[in-house]
Fold this protein.
Amino acid sequence: MALPWWQSAVVYQIYPRSFADANGDGVGDLRGIAGRLDHLAWLGVDAVWLSPIFRSPMADYGYDVADYRDVDPLFGTIDDLDHLLSELHSRGMRLLLDLVPNHTSSQHPWFAESRSSRASPKRDWYYWRDGGGDGEPPNNWTAAFTGKRAWTFDEGTGQWYLHSFLPEQPDLNWGNPEVEAAMHDVVRVWLDRGVDGFRIDVVDLIGKDPALPDDPPERVGHPHFLFHDDPRTHDLLRRLRAVIDSYPGERVTVGEISRPPRRVAAYYGDHDELHLAFNFAPLLAPWDADTWHTMIDVTRSTLDPVDAWPTWVLGNHDQQRPRTRYGTEGRARAAAVLLLTLRGTPFLYAGDELGLEDAIVAGDQVLDPGGRDGCRAPIPWEIDPPHGWNGAATWLPFPPHADVRSAEAQRPDPASMLWLHRDLLTARRGSDALRTGSFAWLDGADGVLAFERASRADRRVVVVSFVDEPRRVAHQGTIEVSSAAGRSGQPFDGSLLPDEAVVLAV
Ligand code: NOJ
């Protein structure tokens, strides 16, 4: 049986504010994205995930949705989205939207209605509770970003509402069947329009015990969402999956689960909850062979027994970019080889293929309440300022070395980070082993990991050095891709350059 497309795909995450700007207001938009699809086709990605483009007051840059059925005017119109979708499809690429089900904006009409009176028919669409006495909130949960209590008191109706994130992001009550039905309708709207699936924001947070029991005292002060784990979420996911799977064309869900790997596996269900869940371990792991060995083993040992397909994430809009985390280009290049050759679906964050570092955002330029501006800086397309962003000043400064790391500077240079990514994606396309084959460890060396990917007669050996000194391994073959410049196509005799990672045809 043919495997679903998303098992062999590489998904490219676009942060729409910072990708490309067609209307010259300094903020990226959908027409801007549509104008850069040749870059994606040339690179060779299979699908695009757009961070939220829905109507939003932007308190959390789109993760506070005020209308799930409309595009924010900052990004364009529904027609622009249709245009982008058809342009992607005509190039054989798919589109995932970002569904934010746990909370709306406080400016969503649902919340305005809910807040208007205790008797509102939508009162129970959110979590309204009486205080705990002495002006205390209803429970001790801590909100993300602010580090304060996850509750805000509403003078008008004399009750508190729950917000696991900003006060501008009230939590929806999925325990109310009307909320669930309303969100299923939202999902259908976009599936009917032809989108190929959804990345689902903090999806493990939607099921809640209506008693909202206190967190244990030692967790107070840490965001509640990091610990939340309620069995009700699984029922909700099964019903959501049924909606998704009722559509033809292998629509897909990838869930954001901020839980340890052992718990993440549970959210795949028995092939009846999420299709995929993000594996964030690599985002947080230091560049160290033993750490990666353990992390890969934990991923395998938790997902393989339940036949859950892994994912790999090195960068996103919430974390420092890999080039910044690892500190050198050599390491970032070796990490790209890992991302694109481990068994599972890789998620590549736009700009990481250019080796961008986080932008340096001065104190008075800071915008994001979560301190994540650096990894959200505009993509430099052209060498010369304003780097393909013609018009108003960009909403955030460019990353360092925007000229030499621009797409234009790298495109003619086969030794560039951009070409490394393209070469890896080309290698994947040509190899069942790399896309969907089995995984087995091979002998490495001190600070070096080696593994085999195999599918019938197709075999690749991947060797990754985590150290900036030469190393020797016992493997030989032809270098299909090397993270070091100029080595592709050469025979490999077991000698690795410092920081080098190679894909060997054997
Ligand atoms: C996770 C998203 O990735 C992040 O950007 C957002 O702030 C929170 N969820 C809240 O929606």
